[in-house]
Write the structure tokens for this entry.
Amino acid sequence: MDFKGKRVLVTGSTRGIGRCAAEMFHQAGASVAINGRDAGKVTEVIRELGGDRLVAAPGDVSTIEGCQSAVDTAVHQLGGLDCLVNNVGTWSTAGILDVTEAEWDRVMNTNVRSALFCSKAAAPALRESTGSIVLVSSIAALTPGPSTTFLYSVAKAGLIGMMRALTVELAADNVRVNCVCPGFVDTPGVGRHINMEDDVLRDGAAQLVPLGRLGTLRECASAILYFASDDANFCAGSILSNDGGCAVRVGWTARS
């Protein structure tokens, strides 16, 4: 995929899926704005990725002010925007009886508020470029998991609803909105989300994932790039579930 001349902002791009996506966009020729709460970490990532065609757009996008600041900085430094990737997110192990107001606010602000208000801030620039928005949800939004994924699932399902509503809102301006739903991706600390050691999860992936392994960061990020590419110009309101086949089971932690 060729992104020469394209301008991209990836929220939460100092680590994990977001960083990999930013790196792949950059390798494909795009100019990329790197976002994270820690400005020092943003600078470090830019240095590690090579610096050229990379700009810093730090900010805590769990706040409305942080969303506006990050988007405004990216648009100003990039000279416009062709794609917004709403990637930033956080996990919660709160079941229905454990959800507190503070935990609800933390999870919803990071996962859902960030996507809404970054999209709102970016909409004028994306309308001008007839660009696209990619939201990163989760398999947890599509199929049931253990009770410790309850609040996380609610938040990630909210992103799918937002994607559908944004599609209707922005399609008339030729701004496409789509959603990626990753499954188990091999990132540091992935096992803690289901109370399992990382090595144990990797060894037992054959029991959790029909394809018999965890996904790689590149395999997940490539779905983001596809939706942002010209090859996906007729995709709007679409969900790509890159989960190794988990969604077709009764639940995403169901064992064979």
Notes: The chain has eight helices and seven strands. Strands lie at 7-10, 31-34, 54-56, 83-86, 132-136, 176-180, 239-240. The chain has a mean pLDDT of 91.
